[in-house]
């Protein structure tokens, strides 16, 4: 069965939607269709992909307007009676065709204070951790950095607060560090002042699009917000801080 | 005159998977300036696909484990044509490298007493794989990435290297292009480390991504370095076979480690039928013993599903050829059966194998907690690669180092699962350390402009030609041919046919043409990668013809047995006057104390 795909073509200056037809066969995913189109009629159609198994997070795009991984979106879940639109993620500048410029994300990550473990405390010079103490952190570390959560976040997508807000991906990253049983660093002040955690108003769109099913809002962002409140808006704690500074 | 931008680093690392990142971190820690080139974005390299774990004899789960057992398991798995020194260093150093990851933030699954948990895997006598569910590769790459970005490494993303630049014999830099605008870049470096991964894209059915085009192998070869063991390719026994678009996608050995069994269309558990002599004493006598092994019973031997990958792949191939395959040309891998043994099997499977559950649910519409999977062999890994010195990872060319899959030696004729991730961190570290040392002891070389001009001209040629073949088609034809003629089962006549076919494909590639311009153009990238794929395909084929025996990843139908004569050397290829020259490199004599270790371990 033939289907029509309407794909964004063009560079940073601007682009247009171009229609391509290709055969859709059993079990195919959207990325297969894009590859087929490349081989058949548009060898210079640019898209990122690597593992083709939902593990690397390279092939993020908007399929019929929904942020998704192209490699994990089966064609039989899409209505092909209409042209299927494929566009790059909108929360970032376009490089070419389906490629978004995600370099901002790499800059943000560098600004977050790195992991700082307490000194090893087991006899053999390592640490002991219980599985139940790391379950939460392991959930966050499933992240494949596809940036679909960044793409869907209205603070970035609609309000373009990239300067003031680090987005769900890096709140999850911060949460993984903050809740790591061995970590001794404190990132709450940065989260409040530089990383704009207050901008998140818990609409949970990020959780909905996460291909790894990380409960971003409930498990990462809300507990982080609570930590920020506890440490920076609790009047008693504030007093203690002032006292400490004077000392 | 070609236009290009020049960058200078003391050490330049090509490839940002586990080995490249670990090398870059080490070199940087040694106080030299480091550049790291990624073919894709940082953190997307094929290492993320590794699932099962990294092998390190820490003895956290079974205290009988130690480096000696790991060493002898690795040598046995490699059928004794491994570089013994690499296998020794690997077994001794892997535990420290794993613990170091924990200090950098990795969060491994835990034992009850809070240590790093280790799991069973094919060919490893004791539970040895440190892991995080079935996404250990992601944990490795993310840990190294997040540590590395604070080390002052200059990262060059979406840059592809197309040749090594030399000053006399010495490698002194590379010629590359960046993807967005196709602009050329020259990187000058005192030492260059290749960590480019594998060659899976030479085959039709593969678990490798588009990046696995043998770049490092081909770059080193064309610069005059030696490659060894190129005939040894690992066909992983369990790739997905259905639906067609996911054919080849990898299904972790962890499924079998957790108790998964292989059955044919008659419902027979066929792996018990054919257990090699080398492993008879270490294999379970019956299904019950096999199950006990997967559940941690120290007195039990492993089930035959956990024999080495080369053997399991051939058994599956045999079942399919004998007409006992599944509807789509594979066999059944069943983990759902454990419901007979475990009351909470559904939750257990989801917890232990989350990404497998997810992968089958989403891509094949199949629930692995209730239904057996269809699986078949997929091109997974190449044991062969750049010939390196065991201690320093130096190639046969001064200034050039290699680590990870593109280097060779540790795995011999067959790699054990889990030995790859540990290889990356053990030898990535060593490559970084010794490349930094070389860089401190040597200044920059000089690069002759004519080399750069020639490379730039060659790179742009596909745009100037018209009416030639589309590079995607040539790549498809190459993959079909290699799959058919130089695959799991090999024959002299077929491989000679492949050599003739390669000549034709080379000729077609030299006439291939592309449309569009140099801006992020996958057609152009494919045309440039083709040269590498054709080079490694020829190396695989010629080496496979030269080895007239069956051993590990090489199975010759015309020479179905192992021949002790062929245990005495590795097969090497080298470019001499533009042609591939093949030779036999004698294996170094193993020292008496290591021979004693192997005998002691039985």
The CATH class label of the largest domain in chain B is Alpha Beta
Give the overall shape of chain A, derived from the CA principal axes: elongated
**Helix and strand element order of chain A:** EEHEEEEEHHHHHHHHH
Radius of gyration of chain B: 23 Å
End-to-end separation of chain A in angstroms reads: 76 Å
Instruction: Indicate the CATH topology of the largest domain in chain B.
Output: FAD/NAD(P)-binding domain
Strand order of the largest sheet of chain A: 2-1-5-3-4
Number of strands of chain A: 7
CATH evolutionary superfamily of the largest domain in chain B: FAD/NAD(P)-binding domain
Q: Main beta sheet of chain B: strand number and arrangement?
A: 7 strands, mixed
CATH architecture of the largest domain in chain B: 3-Layer(bba) Sandwich
CATH topology of the largest domain in chain A, by name, is Fumarate Reductase Iron-sulfur Protein, Chain B, domain 2
What structural class is derived from the secondary structure elements of chain A? alpha+beta
Oligomer class: heterodimer
Write down how many β-strands of chain B occur, each being a DSSP E stretch of 2 or more residues: 19
Low-confidence stretches of chain B: none
- Summarize the amount of helix of chain A as a percent range: 25-40%
Fraction of residues in β-strands of chain B: 15-25%
What does this structure look like?
The complex is a heterodimer of chains A (247) and B (602). Chain A is an alpha+beta fold. Chain A folds into 2 domains: 99 residues, Roll (Ubiquitin-like (UB roll)); 144 residues, Fumarate Reductase Iron-sulfur Protein, Chain B, domain 2. In chain A, helix 3 runs antiparallel to helix 6. The mean pLDDT of chain A is 95. By secondary structure, chain B is α/β, with parallel strands linked by helices. Chain B has 2 domains: 445 residues, FAD/NAD(P)-binding domain; 142 residues, Flavocytochrome C3, Chain A, domain 1 (Alpha-Beta Complex), CATH 3.90.700.10. In chain B, 36% of the residues lie in helices and 17% in strands. Chain B has 16 helices and 19 strands. In chain B, strands 1, 2, 6, 7, 8, 9 and 16 form a 7-stranded mixed β-sheet that branches. In chain B, strands 17-15-10-18-19 form a 5-stranded mixed β-sheet, covered by helices on one side. The radius of gyration of chain B is 23 Å and the shape is globular. The model of chain B has no long low-confidence stretch (mean pLDDT 95).
């Amino acid at each position: 069965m033939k289907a029509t795909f309407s794909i964004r073509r063009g560079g940073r200056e601007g682009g247009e939607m171009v229609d391509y037809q290709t055969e859709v066969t059993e079990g195919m995913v959207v990325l297969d269709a894009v590859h087929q189109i490349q081989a058949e009629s548009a060898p210079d159609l640019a898209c990122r992909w690597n593992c083709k198994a939902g593990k690397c997070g390279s092939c993020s795009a908007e399929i019929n307007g929904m942020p998704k991984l192209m490699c994990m979106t089966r064609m039989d879940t899409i209505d092909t009676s209409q042209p299927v639109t494929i566009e790059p993620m909108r929360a970032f500048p376009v490089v070419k065709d389906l490629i978004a410029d995600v370099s901002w994300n790499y800059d943000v990550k560098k600004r977050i204070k790195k992991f700082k473990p307490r000194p090893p405390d087991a006899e053999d010079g390592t640490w002991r951790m219980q599985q139940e103490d790391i379950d939460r952190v392991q959930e966050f570390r499933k992240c494949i950095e596809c940036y679909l959560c960044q793409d869907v976040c209205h603070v970035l997508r609609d309000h373009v607060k990239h300067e003031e807000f680090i987005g769900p991906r890096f709140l999850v990253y911060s949460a993984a560090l903050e809740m790591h049983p061995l970590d001794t660093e404190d990132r709450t002040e940065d989260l409040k002042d530089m990383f704009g955690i207050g901008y998140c108003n818990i609409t949970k769109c990020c959780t909905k699009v996460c291909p790894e099913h990380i409960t971003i809002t409930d498990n990462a962002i809300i507990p982080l917000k609570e930590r920020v409140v506890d440490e920076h808006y609790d009047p008693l704690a504030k007093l203690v801080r002032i006292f400490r500074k004077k000392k | 005159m070609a236009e290009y931008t020049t960058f200078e680093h003391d050490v330049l690392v090509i490839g940002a998977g586990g080995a490249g990142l670990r090398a870059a971190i080490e070199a940087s820690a040694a106080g030299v300036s480091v550049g790291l080139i990624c073919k894709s974005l940082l953190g997307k390299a094929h290492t993320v696909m590794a699932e099962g774990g990294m092998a390190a004899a820490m003895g956290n789960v079974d205290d009988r484990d130690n480096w000696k057992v790991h060493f002898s398991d690795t040598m046995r798995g490699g059928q004794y044509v491994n570089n013994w020194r690499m296998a020794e260093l690997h077994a001794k150093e892997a535990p420290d490298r794993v613990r170091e990851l924990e200090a950098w933030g990795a969060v491994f699954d835990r034992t009850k007493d809070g240590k790093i948990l280790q799991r069973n895997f094919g060919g490893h006598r004791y539970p040895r794989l440190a892991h995080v569910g079935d996404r250990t590769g992601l944990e490795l790459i993310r840990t190294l990435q997040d540590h590395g970005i604070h080390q002052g490494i200059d990262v060059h993303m979406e840059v592809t290297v197309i040749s090594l630049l030399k000053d006399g014999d010495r490698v002194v830099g590379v010629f590359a292009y960046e993807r967005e605008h196709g602009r050329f870049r020259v990187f000058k470096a005192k030492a260059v480390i290749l960590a480019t991964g594998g060659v899976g894209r030479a085959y039709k059915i593969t678990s490798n991504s588009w990046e696995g085009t043998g770049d490092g192998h081909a770059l080193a070869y064309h610069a005059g370095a030696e490659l060894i063991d190129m005939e040894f390719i690992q066909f992983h026994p369990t790739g997905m076979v259905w639906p067609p678009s996911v054919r080849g996608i990898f299904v972790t050995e962890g499924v079998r480690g957790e108790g998964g069994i292989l059955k044919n269309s008659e419902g027979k558990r066929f792996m018990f039928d054919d257990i090699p002599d080398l492993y008879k004493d270490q294999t379970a006598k019956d299904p019950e013993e096999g199950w006990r092994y997967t559940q941690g019973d120290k007195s039990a031997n492993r089930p035959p599903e956990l024999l080495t990958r080369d053997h399991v792949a051939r058994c599956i191939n045999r079942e399919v050829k004998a007409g006992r395959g599944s509807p789509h040309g594979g066999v059944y891998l069943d983990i759902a059966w454990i419901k007979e043994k475990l009351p909470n099997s559904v939750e257990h499977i989801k917890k232990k194998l989350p990404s497998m559950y997810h992968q089958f649910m989403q891509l094949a519409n199949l629930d692995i907690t209730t239904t057996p999977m269809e699986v078949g062999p997929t091109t997974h890994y190449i044991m062969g690669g750049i010939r390196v010195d065991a201690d320093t990872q130096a190639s046969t060319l001064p200034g050039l180092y290699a680590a990870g899959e593109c280097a060779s030696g540790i795995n011999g004729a067959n790699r054990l699962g889990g030995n790859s991730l540990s290889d990356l961190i053990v030898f990535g570290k060593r490559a970084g350390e010794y490349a930094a040392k070389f860089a401190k002891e040597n200044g920059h070389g000089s690069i002759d402009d004519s080399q750069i001009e020639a490379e730039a001209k060659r790179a742009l040629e596909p745009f100037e030609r018209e009416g030639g073949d589309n590079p995607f088609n040539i790549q498809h034809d190459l993959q079909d041919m290699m799959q058919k003629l130089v695959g799991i089962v090999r024959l002299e006549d077929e491989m000679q046919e492949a050599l003739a076919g390669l000549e034709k494909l080379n000729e077609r590639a030299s006439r291939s043409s592309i449309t569009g311009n140099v801006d992020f153009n996958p057609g152009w990238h494919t045309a440039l990668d083709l040269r590498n794929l054709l080079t490694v395909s020829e190396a695989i084929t010629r080496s496979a013809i030269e080895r007239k025996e069956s051993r590990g990843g090489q199975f010759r139908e015309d020479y179905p047995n192992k021949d002790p004569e062929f245990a005495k050397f590795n097969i090497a290829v080298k470019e001499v006057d533009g042609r591939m020259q093949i030779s036999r490199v004698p294996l170094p004599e193993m020292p008496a104390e290591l021979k004693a270790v192997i005998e002691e371990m039985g």
